[in-house]
Amino acid sequence: MSNQYTLPDYSDILTPADYQRLSEKAVEVIGRNQIDAMSNAQINLLKGSLDRILRRHGTVGTITDLELIGAYEMIIEYVLPGFLEAVFTKASDQST
User: Fold this and answer.
1) Which pTM was predicted?
2) Taking the CA of residue 96 as centre, how many other CA atoms within 13 Å lie in the half-sphere pointing to its CB?
3) Fewer CB atoms < 10 Å away: N or C end of the chain?
4) 85 pLDDT band (50/70/90 cuts)?
């Protein structure tokens, strides 16, 4: 017997309007200035994280502010902090 739990995936019922509502909620909760300060790579990571959250919930209405803040903080503090991205960019520029 498998002990794995499969998260629900509601991606087949989501519409572009759902993603628009999620974007608006993210800007409201996280803040336009904070999002504008993110690099393109960080924004792409945030989009992926928010997509997974929305697919798991199936609706924007059940996504909490803390989930959005958590996704944002995880990316800018742990996954790809700005100082680390600068190191990667410098190393990449030197190798070309």
Assistant:
1) 0.80
2) 6
3) N
4) confident
